[in-house]
Specification:
Layout lengths: L3 H5 L1 H5 L5 H13 L1 H19 L10 H8 L3 H6 L3 H45 L8 E2 L3 H7 L20 E9 L2 E10 L2 E9 L8 E5 L2 E8 L2 E7 L3 H13 L1
Antiparallel strand pairs: 1-2, 2-3, 3-4, 4-7, 5-6, 6-7
Helix pairs in contact: 3-4
């Protein structure tokens, strides 16, 4: 038997187009629907296979010579003893091309991180709406941590830092760029701090700090997890919470 959601929701879930509620609902559906779970596994395997496949072939050894001889003026320069100069210019052009590619790659990575920051700040802002701050409200880390069991494919590290004036207030599920993550909620005087936690991966691991939309953020990696804290507290307070996590 088929499943209608495999046709209507699966690809939206895979492409990160569902909101937090939709993603969480589909996560729950996957646990009870072998059809969708199998289809998701096949789609992910296909994507991974395409990414890992070496879909190219090495150029023949004589290709460079044939290209050079086909370009106007190259043979004349070579016969006049200017071939060395010509290839030096070619090398300079290739170096410039490589530098441009590296610059574009760095810009691309920077844009990805900027998008992640914006998504984290947006998620924090959503949580400040009435009734959205926490799915499980508790100051006990031994209550909050088990709440995530079965809702994520990892167990987020949950800590209470009440002794340092960062009390744990609870936790919730949230979505950052289509990925379902754990969100730990902390208090700091009369302010709230969201600490988003997910498994670290080459395309999601990042670190740094800054300000976006009037909110401070700081991100770090530890023990195979990526963390991102967002709040309207001072950057010094946010960095202090980061240090507490790192010191644990």
């Amino acid at each position: 038997m088929g499943c209608e959601l495999a046709q209507t929701r699966l690809h939206a879930y895979l492409d990160g187009e569902l909101d937090a509620t939709g993603s969480a609902d589909f996560n729950q559906h996957l646990r009870n629907c072998p059809v969708c779970a199998g289809a998701l596994e096949e789609e992910e395997a296909l994507r991974q296979g395409l990414q890992q496949a070496r879909l190219y072939s090495r150029a023949p050894a004589g290709l460079k010579l044939r290209i050079a001889e086909s370009l106007p003026g190259i043979r004349a320069q070579k016969s006049a003893g200017l071939g060395l100069i010509s290839w030096r210019w070619f090398a300079v052009a290739m170096a410039l091309l490589l530098a441009a590619f590296v610059g574009w790659r760095q810009l691309s990575i920077g844009n990805q991180r900027t998008a992640a920051v914006v998504a984290a700040v947006d998620a924090h802002l959503r949580s400040l709406q009435p009734g959205h701050l926490a799915d499980v409200q508790s100051t006990d880390q031994h209550t909050v941590k088990p709440w995530f069991d079965g809702k994520l494919d990892f167990a987020p590290p949950v800590r209470d830092f009440s002794s340092a004036d960062f009390p744990l207030l609870g936790g919730r599920l949230d979505v950052i760029e289509g990925r379902t993550v754990a969100a730990l909620v902390y208090g700091r005087r009369k302010h709230f701090i969201s600490v988003f936690v997910e498994k670290a991966a080459p395309d999601t691991s990042w670190s740094g700090s800054g300000e976006a939309q009037g909110y401070h953020w700081t991100a770090w990696n530890k023990d195979g997890f990526t963390f991102c804290g967002v709040s309207d507290v001072s950057s010094a307070d946010l960095n202090r919470l980061k240090e507490l996590f790192i010191q644990e």
